[in-house]
Amino acid sequence: MRYSNYYFIGIGGIGMSAIARYCKFKGASVSGYDRTASDLTRALEAEGIAVHYEDDPARIPGTPADTLVVFTPAVPAGLGELCQARERGFRVIKRSQMLGELTAGQRCLAVAGTHGKTTTSTLVAHILTESGTGCSAFLGGISKNYGTNMLMSRTPIVVAEADEFDRSFHQLHPAIAAITAMDADHLDIYGDLAHVQEAFRIFASQVSETLILKYGLPVTQEDTPAKIYTYHFDEPCADFHSSNLRLDGSGHYTYDLVYPGGVLTDIRVGAIGWVNVENSIAAAAICLCNGLDAQKVRHAIGTFEGAWRRLDVHLNTPALTYIDDYAHHPAELQSAISSIRQVFPGRRITGIFQPHLYTRTRDFAPEFARALSGLDKLILLDIYPAREEPIPGVTSEIIFRDVTAPEKVLVPKAELLSYLEKEPLDVLVTLGAGDIDRFIEPITGLLKQRL
After folding, report:
1. If we measure between CA atoms, which residue out of 149, 220, 141 comes closest to residue 182?
2. Pairing of β 157-162 and β 136-143
3. Residue 188's pLDDT band (boundaries 50, 70, 90)?
4. Is 189 domain-assigned?
5. pLDDT digits (tens, 9 = 90+) for 372-420
6. Which domain holds residue 29?
7. Parallel, antiparallel, or unpaired for β 240-247 and 253-259?
8. Nearest in space to 45 (alpha carbons), one of 62, 23, 21, 67
9. 316 and 201, same structural domain?
10. Using H for helix, E for strand and C for coil, what is the string for the chain?
11. Same domain, yes or no: 70 and 122
C-alpha cells in the first residue's frame, strides 16, 4: 500500500466499508468517521478498525505524507473533517477513485447496471471462490455465503460492483464486464435517460476484452473495443440464455444454460426467483469467458445463498412467508414482485414499501404506482430522505393515489409494527433502500410468534 494510514469519511457505507476492509487486509492502519453507528460500523470495529461518530477533524491520523483520506459523495460538502483534510493538505479522493486505483494492475471483472449488479457481482465472486480460482471482491451488498461485502485473496483477480451513481464506474477499466440494465435513475445527476445511457456507453468503452450485455440494451460494437456477448433470461437470440426451465416446490429454479460453448444442463439456482436465474446467467457468462470450467460454474451457482436484502427469505412456511428486498427503483420493484408472485402462486402478497429520495419519488411516481399495483396489498411508508432536503409537494401520497392494488394504506413508520400486529398476512415483503432494514428483525420475531 502506498500510504500507512487510510482514513474514510463515511466509512459505514457499503462500498466504503469494503475498501476499508481491503486496506486493513493489506496491512495499513485504517480508521474513519460515520454519522451513525450501524451493523456495518460495528462489524468494522470488531475487526479492529477504529470508527467514531462525531465530526471531529482532530481524529484524522498522521500527516499528508503518510495518510490518504477517502470520502463518499453521500457526505455533506461542508463536513468539518472533509474541509479540514483539504485545508491541511491531505490527499482527498472519492471512493470511486480509490476503487479504480486498487483494481488497476489486477484483472478486473466488473458488473454494472441500474439493477441486478449487486447479486450478479456477488455471484461472480462466489463462483470464483467456490471453484478454487479465488478473487478479491468489492461488493455493494453482504454475501450470505460469506457474511461480508469484501472477499480477500492473493489471486490477482478482483471483482467489482461498478456503480453508476456519481459516474463512479468511469474509474474502472475491466477486462470483462457485464451491463445488466440501463434504466433511467439518478436523474438528479444525469438529468435524463439519454445521459444515463451515454454514461454506460463510456463505461463500455473502458472494457478491454469481453462485454456481457443484457439482450436489447443500446450498446453496440462501435461503443467498445471488447467482444460483445448478449444474455437474457429466456430470449433464444441471446448468446447466453436459459432453456428447459423448471420450478420446484421450494421456489428454486433449475435450467439448462445455452451458451456459445454448448449447453450446460441442470443448473439449480441456490437463490429463489426468476430474476436470480437471469443474474446467474450473467454471472456464468462472465466466469465462462474468464476460462472457468463449466462444471465448476454449475456447482457454484447451486451453492449460492444470495445477497443480503436481495429476495432475502427470513421465514418460509406454507402458512406464512417473509421476504426482504432492497428494491428502490420501479424496475426493481416489478422484478421483485413478479419473482415472488411466480414462486408463490395463488398466495396473497402484502408489500411494505419505503420510497428512497425525494427526487426519485418525484421523477418516477407513476412508474412506482404501476409496479406496486402488482401487490395484493400495499403498506406505504413516508419517504426516506437520505442525503436530500424535502421538495415541496413531494410525499408518498403522489405514489399512493395512483396505486390500483386491491388494498392500500399509508402508515407512519413509527406505527408500522403495531399495524402489523393486527394485520392478517400470508406472504409479506419489505421493499426499499432506506432504513426499512431496521424492521427485519422485529418483523421476523413478530411473525414467528404466529406459527
Report:
1. 220
2. parallel
3. confident
4. yes
5. 999 999 999 999 998 899 999 999 999 999 999 999 999 999 999 999 9
6. 5-93
7. antiparallel
8. 21
9. no
10. CCCCEEEEECCCCHHHHHHHHHHHHCCCEEEEECCCCCHHHHHHHHCCCEEECCCCHHHCCCCCCCEEEEECCCCCCCCHHHHHHHHCCCEEEEHHHHHHHHHCCCEEEEEECCCCHHHHHHHHHHHHHHCCCCCEEEEEEEECCCCEEEECCCCCEEEEEECCHHHHHHHCCCCEEEECCCCCCCHHHHCCHHHHHHHHHHHHHCCCCEEEEECCCCCCHHHCCCEEEEEECCCCCCCEEEEEEEECCCCCEEEEEEECCEEEEEEECCCCCHHHHHHHHHHHHHHHHCCCCHHHHHHHHHHCCCECCCCEEEEECCCCEEEEECCCCHHHHHHHHHHHHHHCCCCCEEEEEECECHHHHHHHHHHHHHHHCCCCEEEECCCECCCCCCCCCCCCHHHHCCCCCCEEEECCHHHHHHHHHCCCCCEEEEEECCCHHHHHHHHHHHHHCCC
11. no
Domain stops at, among 282, 303, 324: 303
* Cell numbers describing residue 119: 447479486
Q: Which three cell numbers stand for residue 288?
A: 465462462
Distance CA 100, CA 70 (A): 12
The confidence band for 429, taking pLDDT boundaries of 50, 70 and 90, is very high
- Domain of 37, CATH number, reads 3.40.50.720
- Please give the radius of gyration of the chain, using alpha carbons only, rounded to the nearest integer: 22
Residue with cell 453508476: 164
CATH code, 391: 3.90.190.20
Residue 98 lies in a domain: no
Mean pLDDT, the chain, rounded, equals: 96
